[in-house]
């Protein structure tokens, strides 16, 4: 069985998923999702802002895999006003009748205003779980003061170079699963010499080393690729372990001082 993490809503989220940020709507996204499901991925991560939900939905339906065996995440685009109405539109585009996880894509106009609509989406049966993305530790704390349903997930940019240990610890303390997007630094980290050295020493690839590092930090991880051989490579990270020396060498690549501030986190404002 696939490795999963327990969620505060009672569910379980796969450790490894396919992200489709920057995958074009149409055959590119459709094929990537079909391949991922064939290879064994059971977590697919899309968003309203990616404009490829229809392709994700087509690929899920054509896979023949029962819907309940797949963990499907989409994200509320916070330039809109009504999370519940937007969830209904997402479901229509995805051609399915529920989401597994529905995230606020980023805390535009503050961390709390959209949450009641997210909670209403759960109560209406549109999604099993709700969470957040790109929230800082302070924004998580603010949301927790007013939420009736706790966020189950905080999806954040996370790699050895963007290693917000304090944010991950804050999520863990609050019972929130942290999920890593851009674990490869959108591809920019694959050529790093430290990563290359550890890849050679472990007989794996740089992408596998970066993904494995995030898995060992306890996160769910969603590398993006639209190439079949890379989708396959990125999934093959459960047959090796990074030792303490390798982990600390990777930890030392951090450029953020393990805080949010250095990241330019608020790219959306
Ligand atoms: P592509 O989609 O053309 O395969 P991240 O997950 O950090 O956002 O990184 C995604 C980027 O890294 C994409 O440009 C993707 O390209 C590339 N990529 C994903 N997996 C691999 C891999 N195993 N080897 C090389 N490049 C990869």
Task: Provide an overview of this structure.
- The chain has helices at 27-39, 53-63, 83-94, 115-123, 137-146, 165-173, 193-202, 206-216, 228-235, 244-251; strands spanning 4-6, 12-14, 18-19, 43-45, 71-76, 99-104, 127-133, 153-157, 177-181, 220-221.
- With 269 residues, the chain is an alpha/beta fold.
- The protein has a single domain (4-189, 214-226), classed as NADP-dependent oxidoreductase domain (TIM Barrel), CATH 3.20.20.
- The strands form 2 sheets. It has an 8-stranded parallel sheet. It has a two-stranded antiparallel ribbon with strand order 1-2.
- Strand 3 (18-19), helix 1 (27-39) and strand 4 (43-45) form a beta-alpha-beta unit.
- The longest helix is centred in the first third of the chain and has 13 residues, at 27-39.
- The radius of gyration is 18 Å and the shape is globular.
- The relative contact order is 0.14.
- The structure holds adenosine-2'-5'-diphosphate (A2P).
In short:
The chain is an alpha/beta fold. The chain has one domain (4-189, 214-226): NADP-dependent oxidoreductase domain (TIM Barrel), CATH 3.20.20.100. The chain is built from 10 helices and 10 strands.
């Amino acid at each position: 069985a696939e490795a999963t993490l327990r969620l505060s809503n009672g569910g379980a989220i796969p450790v490894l998923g396919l992200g489709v940020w920057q995958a074009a709507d149409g055959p590119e996204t459709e094929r990537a999702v079909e391949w991922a499901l064939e290879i064994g991925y059971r977590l697919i991560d899309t968003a309203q802002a990616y404009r490829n939900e229809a392709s994700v939905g087509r690929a899920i339906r054509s896979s023949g895999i029962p819907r309940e065996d797949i963990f499907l995440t989409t994200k509320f685009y916070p330039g809109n006003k009504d999370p519940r109405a937007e969830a209904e539109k997402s479901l229509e585009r995805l051609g399915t009748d529920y989401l597994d996880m529905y995230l606020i894509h980023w805390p535009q106009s503050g961390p709390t205003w959209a949450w009641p609509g997210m909670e209403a989406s759960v109560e209406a049966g549109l999604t099993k779980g709700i969470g957040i993305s790109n929230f800082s530790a302070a924004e998580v704390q603010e949301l927790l003061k007013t939420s009736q349903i706790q966020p189950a997930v905080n999806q954040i940019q996370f790699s050895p170079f963007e290693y917000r240990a304090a944010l991950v610890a804050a999520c863990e303390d609050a019972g929130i699963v942290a999920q890593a997007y851009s674990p490869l630094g959108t591809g920019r980290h694959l050529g790093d010499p430290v990563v290359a050295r550890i890849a050679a020493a472990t007989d794996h690839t740089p992408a596998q080393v970066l993904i494995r590092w995030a898995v060992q930090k306890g996160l769910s991880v969603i590398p993006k690729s639209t190439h079949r051989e890379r989708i396959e490579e990125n999934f093959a990270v459960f047959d090796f372990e990074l030792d303490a020396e390798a982990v600390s060498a990777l930890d030392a690549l951090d450029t953020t001082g393990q805080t949010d501030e250095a990241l330019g986190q608020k790219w959306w404002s």
